TrEMBL record:
<protein>
    <submittedName>
        <fullName>MFS transporter</fullName>
    </submittedName>
</protein>
<feature type="transmembrane region" description="Helical">
    <location>
        <begin position="269"/>
        <end position="292"/>
    </location>
</feature>
<dbReference type="GO" id="GO:0005886">
    <property type="term" value="C:plasma membrane"/>
</dbReference>
<feature type="transmembrane region" description="Helical">
    <location>
        <begin position="131"/>
        <end position="151"/>
    </location>
</feature>
<dbReference type="Pfam" id="PF13347">
    <property type="entry name" value="MFS_2"/>
</dbReference>
<dbReference type="GO" id="GO:0008643">
    <property type="term" value="P:carbohydrate transport"/>
</dbReference>
<feature type="transmembrane region" description="Helical">
    <location>
        <begin position="397"/>
        <end position="423"/>
    </location>
</feature>
<keyword id="KW-0472">Membrane</keyword>
<feature type="transmembrane region" description="Helical">
    <location>
        <begin position="435"/>
        <end position="458"/>
    </location>
</feature>
<feature type="transmembrane region" description="Helical">
    <location>
        <begin position="199"/>
        <end position="216"/>
    </location>
</feature>
<feature type="transmembrane region" description="Helical">
    <location>
        <begin position="222"/>
        <end position="240"/>
    </location>
</feature>
<feature type="transmembrane region" description="Helical">
    <location>
        <begin position="333"/>
        <end position="350"/>
    </location>
</feature>
<feature type="region of interest" description="Disordered">
    <location>
        <begin position="1"/>
        <end position="53"/>
    </location>
</feature>
<dbReference type="GO" id="GO:0015293">
    <property type="term" value="F:symporter activity"/>
</dbReference>
<dbReference type="InterPro" id="IPR036259">
    <property type="entry name" value="MFS_trans_sf"/>
</dbReference>
<keyword id="KW-0812">Transmembrane</keyword>
<feature type="compositionally biased region" description="Low complexity">
    <location>
        <begin position="1"/>
        <end position="14"/>
    </location>
</feature>
Length: 469
């Protein structure tokens, strides 16, 4: 079939290579002897000729692609939520020193993400099997280094360098796996609703992983929690091997890490994502300190509150997809930001003994989190497709996306923890003034940043609606 044939919006991208600006899903539904002989691909090939191929949005294909999102998201809870609290409370590390370590390790991790994205793009240009092998290696390193972080074998003299190196390897391997997995999903393409569904499967199952990571340490300890993460990594990788595969596109320039920055639409969307992301990263870093000291809530409240937060996000995902079908991606994301602001304003007013009221805050904020998880990634996939870069530079886009995510987490840990220390707060503090600062930084600072992000998104949508389709 000639490469010059254009794709049909009624039947999907069935031609090779696909049109670079086609909005239909860009995976190859036909079974091939080399890599597409599984039942999923045979089922895709049997679809009626007149129907769009949207296999990744179907339940069977969706969970196979999305299941790996569970352990990748699972790992973010011990790495970004439990680790700071564990090292401060259990190992007695001072907040300022801990913040410096987290900032340095996450900045170093962020610097390698564009290189990882370039690597993944070049692996995709060779074959999906190479990407799967790369993901398997990253998963093994990730499981081992996370265990070493929580059960360090090194002597006291090597505590700091050992923790720094292990944290860097853990974050880098998690990034490598996330970039490979997210880049795979971005290559599947589709219209706004299809892209939203692809991301929603990944993030919805990711939320299931986060829920498990939130409750298992309290129920069974860190050892059982990390063992569960390793098991989920194996199951997720196995399911990924049977997921819909993007159509290979041979590209001599695949993996150009500079390409995303040449697209104004990407730069504009990234600015909104960065501002909104740091607004979310601050409460993620401080939530356990807030629950323990501001609310003075002991077990089982921390696990219950985190489970409610992430459970509400998972339950809200179908509602956000309905909102996308009615309002579009941009306006639905703005609605999510507004709901988050309302929820965190309520959190600023709570005090000791108000854990039941904070449960209501967690439910509302968690519902808003569903929009943050599903919609920005769908917008990014649209930007890649409209730039003509799908199948060529997806990993580069996702790599820079991950850089911003890491910088947000680094700033949250590296700036906010020392700031609270300077304001007089230390873990276990009961001074009213220090606890008031904790509540303000935990709840009100994110509200201000989230409001700025919503304003920026509204101005972007008004001036460049084509960027946000």
């Amino acid at each position: 079939m000639r490469a010059s044939r254009s794709c049909s919006s009624a039947s999907g991208c069935r031609h090779a290579p696909p049109s670079p600006r086609c909005a239909a899903p860009c995976w190859d539904p036909s079974p091939r002897r080399d890599e597409r002989t599984g039942p999923l691909h045979r089922a895709s090939a049997r679809r009626p000729e007149g129907r769009p191929v949207s296999a990744a949005a179907d339940a069977g294909a969706g969970w196979r692609y999305g299941l790996l999102g569970a352990p990748v998201a699972f790992a973010s809870v011990p790495l970004y939520v439990h680790l700071p609290h564990h090292y401060a409370q259990t190992l007695g590390w001072p907040l300022a020193a801990l913040g410096t370590l987290l900032l340095a390790s996450r900045l170093a991790d962020a610097l390698i993400d564009p290189l990882l994205g370039r690597w993944v793009d070049r692996l995709h240009a060779r074959s999906p099997g190479r990407v799967l092998a790369f993901g398997a290696g990253a998963a093994v390193v990730m499981a081992l280094t996370m265990w070493l972080l929580f059960f360090p074998p090194w002597p006291a003299a090597l505590q700091w360098p050992g923790a720094a190196l292990t944290l860097l390897l853990a974050c880098a391997s998690a990034s490598a796996l996330a970039i490979a997995h997210q880049g795979w999903g971005a290559r599947l393409g589709g219209d706004a609703l299809q892209r939203g569904r692809i991301v929603a499967w990944r993030e919805g199952l990711g939320l299931a992983g986060v829920l498990a990571a939130s409750v298992t340490p309290e129920l069974a300890g860190y050892a059982a929690s990390l063992a569960l993460c390793a098991l989920l990594l194996g199951m997720g990788w196995w399911a990924w091997t049977a997921a819909p595969r993007p159509q290979p596109v041979a590209a001599a320039d695949a993996g150009d890490w500079r390409r995303p920055w040449q697209q104004a639409a990407f730069r504009r969307l990234l600015a909104v994502f960065a501002l909104n992301g740091i607004a979310s990263a601050i409460p993620a870093t401080l939530v356990l300190f807030y629950i323990a000291d501001r609310l003075q809530a002991a077990a089982p409240w921390p696990g219950l509150l985190l489970a409610a937060y992430f459970g509400a996000a998972a339950a809200a995902l179908p509602l956000w997809l309905r909102a996308v079908a009615r309002w579009g991606l941009a306006r639905s994301w703005m609605a999510g930001m507004g709901l988050s602001i309302l929820a965190f304003i309520g959190a600023a007013a709570l005090d000791a003994g108000d854990a039941p009221w904070f449960l209501a805050v967690c439910l509302a904020a968690g519902a808003a989190l569903g929009a943050d998880l599903a919609l920005p990634g769908a917008l990014l996939s649209g930007v890649i497709g409209r730039a003509g870069d799908r199948g060529r530079h997806d990993g580069a886009y996702v790599g820079w996306w991950q850089v911003v995510t890491k910088l947000n987490l680094a700033l949250a840990a590296g700036a906010v923890l020392p700031l609270l220390a300077a304001l007089g707060y230390q873990p276990g503090e009961r001074d009213p003034a220090a606890l008031a600062w904790l509540a303000a930084v935990y709840a009100l600072l994110p509200c201000a940043l989230k409001a700025l992000a919503a304003l920026l998104l509204w101005r972007l949508w008004a001036a460049h609606p084509e960027d946000l389709a």
